[in-house]
Amino acid sequence: MSAPLTLGTAGHIDHGKTALIRALTGVDTDRLPQERARGISIELGYASLSLPSGRRLSVVDVPGHERFVRTMVAGATGIDLFLMTIAADDGVMPQTREHAAVLEALRVRTGVVAVTKIDLADPEVALIEASELFPGSEAVAVCARTGEGIDGLRAALDRACAAVESRGDHGPPTPPARLHIDRVFTIRGAGTVVTGTLWAGAIGRGDQLEVLPQGRRVRVRGVQVHDQQVDRAPAGQRVAVNLTGLAVAEIGRGDVLVGVGSEVRPSYRVDTELEFAANAEPEHGSRVQIHHGTREAPARLAWLGGRFWQVRLEQPIVPAAGDRLVVRQIAPPDTLGGGVVVDPQPRRHGPSRDVLVALERLARGEAPPVSGRETGSHPPTPTAPRTPSEAGMGGVQVKLSSSAIALEQQLRDAGVEPPVDSEVDDADLAALREAGRAVRVSKVLHYHVDALAEIRARLVELAERNGGAVTLAQLRDELGTSRKFAQALLEHFDSEKVTIRRGDEHVLRRRLG
Ligand SMILES: Nc1nc2c(ncn2[C@@H]2O[C@H](COP(=O)(O)OP(=O)(O)O)[C@@H](O)[C@H]2O)c(=O)[nH]1
Ligand SMILES: [Mg+2]
Fold first, then answer.
1. Residue nearest (by alpha carbon) to ligand 1 atom 25
2. How far is the CA of 163 from the centre of ligand 2 (A)?
3. DSSP per residue over 112-168, as a string?
């Protein structure tokens, strides 16, 4: 039997996705009463599709409405190939293009285009548009009403499947399981059931799994694939998992099930290689929406050089190196681009030559993927001692003791929250200060020079958004730090003449002219 694959629909609202899946599988994926009443898909729908070769596909039917692109992304994540619909009487429309951008961001490049509703209009123009937008894919003219072209579509899907590798195809050993949850419900007598597309590994009855980001251990009571009980389900398909030890309220869409021993961990920060559509490249510091797995979160993008960006998230995602991300604009919502996770657990850092070199090596797969905080490992940190002038700071060259270097790393990692008890102003801190790597912000607070530069940039940006001034509470919230740290930082920037205090506000001096 061929390895499992998952197909996702795509296409503008009303272009016949759901009708086509019904014609192909007999399943009406619009199962909610409000979906049936309104005649539109709101949630993800699921079906199983048998092809002439005997191959069986999992199908995820997505909504096409522009308000539900986020649901589409959650459904498209983890699919192996697409079925894009373009209505013959309508042609390429905005969500045809946006779904195409999401598929490209997720690197789902294999699929078939169905030009639908050929009983209503001549398919000629839509077929030409399809070949322009998806030059590598077959386009088939179909009618879900009469069934015309449906057999040809099945055959085209079989040919497309032959070109993709299943996530279940891997040499031994089987990687740890990873399932991004898209649905949670209860079955009377069975308890909590979660479903999702199994990205990696396999899940079987009796397995111990961990729910992330909660960090809860659960046990698998049963596994189903397309309503059939199975002992063990390999990756690449839709899987329903019956869990014990967890109430339905304790788990939801966006959470991740991983095999015990998996190195995947929740993370608020990822170093990524991103690509944007022409004219869609965001500026350093932009706030965007990040979609990963079935989870999404707002984040700031910090440019690291080249195509590398540090994504700083407001809520954690559960990433592994090599995972795809989609980047969307928050308002008005639009898909800007996407990319790949290069380091799922990086320290907080800005751009530098060393960072760029390290990321390029990681992206080329030359250094082992970083395994996560618990092992304390990091991307290859520069081993060559950097002189202050190399770091663009000028000044004297100070030889740092290996402990001072460890302290510097600690300060770097800390970002906004220096954990260093600098009440004791020891020799190492003094050496770091002298070398231009640490800055004393108050009697008891030292910051790494890179972290401070970044905080300064965020302060300026916040003030610019705010008519030229910030309050203590605003900076505290922006940085997600404590009142104490925000106070010390503002006093520091006042003394540095970045800002000047006017009552409760700290006004940007450059705005005062
Ligand atoms: N005449 C005709 N109508 C179709 C065809 N396919 C879908 N429809 C109708 O178009 C509308 C939208 O179809 P639907 O599958 O819900 O679109 P979706 O939003 O892409 O899932 C429904 O009223 C369908 O009955 C077709 O091939 N011919
Ligand atoms: Mg639909």
1. 19
2. 26
3. EEEEE-TTTS-SHHHHHHHHHH-TTSEEEE--TTT-TTHHHHHHHHHHHHTTS--TT
